[in-house]
Amino acid sequence: MSTDTSGSDPTPTTTTGSTGRRWGLLGAPTSAAAHGPGLEKAPAALRDAGLVEALTDAGLTVSDHGDRPAARWRSAPAPGRPNDVEGAVAVLRDAVPAIEAVLAAGELPLVVGGDCTLAVALVDAAVRTFGDVGLVYVDGGQDLMVPSEHLDEPILDGMGVAHLLDLPGTVDELAGLGVRRPVLTAEHVCFYGYADEEEDTHGRVPSLRLPADVVAADPAGSAGQAVRAVLRGRERFVVHVDVDVLDFFLLPAADVPSFGRGLTPATLVAALAALVAEPGFAGMTFVEHNPDHGAADGSTTRALVDLLRQALVPR
After folding, report:
1. Strands of 281-287's sheet, edge to edge?
2. Closest CA to 235 of 201, 188, 199
3. Number of DSSP helices (H) and strands (E) in the chain, helices first
4. Which residues are 287's β-sheet partners?
5. Distance separating alpha carbons of residues 207 and 216, to the nearest angstrom
6. Residue 62 phi/psi, 5° resolution?
7. DSSP assignment of 160-186
8. Kindly report the CA angle at 101 between 100 and 105, in degrees rounded to 5?
């Protein structure tokens, strides 16, 4: 895992807006668990595209907690195991206390990455802070693959939820990373907006599933349904957003594209706005943007910044 010095713990800079909620922006520039390099560039690209300014100009109060150390994809295969488990787990072990610090400051984490395994870090930090939480997983897939069944694609990026749930066949270093094992149970997870094929091939994950067509028909209503499902007596929930939930033809931002079958940007904005507005909302990951896949002039990344602005500003 290659690192830089940008991950030293900075004193957060806070820009005060007119709304009551306070956000804590944290960059996690990692592609350690991804299919290849590129995702580690996203936090810097989003900042360069004006993310902080867009949010604060819209009236949000944002503390910028900087970026954690950069971790670029490397080839580190091992028989029967995902690629570079050591590197991916090191990233998450670093991210958890950084997210905890954001929560301890009374802020809502906005963790920009980076690859999908950052959801593991967000959930673990939230559980350490609040106790039981729920998870709304806004993603083109469900990330339920396990290493023993996907030897042809030994990539942890598609296995994060399987490890959160401690499914059979997961690797101990990641499944046991959290404060408890499993960190979550299936009834407190909702798979939201996915367009990929069903991944729960063994019927072991009885979570609520709201696929892309359901979300597109009623973004706000489906968001409320998701929240009610994942809370079930719990007070707080977090949201994971993989930009591959978007139709790549409409916004070519993702590392792994979904062609012609994802959500529209407007639908994602409406859904996220409804999720964020819920009183139990406790933080978000926003991941899987590969700046190299977008327009050369940076307009794709700027469009993602505007999408986030629209979604996070209270209505």
Report:
1. 13-15, 61-67, 22-28, 108-113, 281-287, 236-242, 133-138, 189-192, 208-210
2. 188
3. 10, 9
4. 242
5. 20
6. -130, 125
7. HHHHHTT-TT--HHHHT-SSSSSS--G
8. 115
DSSP secondary structure code for residue 243 in this structure: G
Beta strands in the chain (DSSP E): 13-15, 22-28, 61-67, 108-113, 133-138, 189-192, 208-210, 236-242, 281-287
As to burial, measured by CB atoms within 10 angstroms (0-12 exposed, 13-18 middle, 19+ buried), residue 175 is buried
pLDDT, residue 2, reads: 40
The structure tokens listed for 74 are: 């490397």
pTM, 2 dp:
0.95
CA distance linking residue 260 with residue 14, whole number of Å = 39
Any idea which residue has 């296995």 for tokens?
159
- Cα 247–chain centre separation: 17
Give residue 41's pLDDT.
98
Q: Measuring CA to CA, which residue among 130, 142, 126, 144 is closest to residue 238? A: 126
Residue 191's SS3 state is strand
Compute how many other C-beta atoms are within 10 angstroms of the C-beta atom of residue 2.
Answer: 12
Q: Which of 238, 285, 257, 265 is nearest to 114 (CA)?
A: 285
- 10-residue mean pLDDT series, the chain (315 residues): 46 66 97 98 98 97 98 96 98 98 98 98 98 98 93 94 97 97 98 95 96 98 98 96 98 96 97 98 98 97 98 94
Contact indicator for 1, 38 with CB cutoff of 8 Å: no
Cis check: omega of the bond before 182, within 30 degrees of 0: yes
C-alpha dist (Å) from residue 70 to 2, 24, 290 = 7, 19, 15
Look at residue 9 in the predicted model and tell me its pLDDT.
Answer: 60
Cβ(219)–Cβ(264) below 8 Å: no
Q: How big is the chain, counted in residues? A: 315
What pLDDT sits at residue 129?
Answer: 98
Question: Which residues fall within 8 angstroms of residue 223, CB to CB, at 6 or more apart?
Answer: 136, 192, 271, 272, 274, 275, 278
Q: Are strands 189-192 and 281-287 parallel, antiparallel or unpaired?
A: unpaired
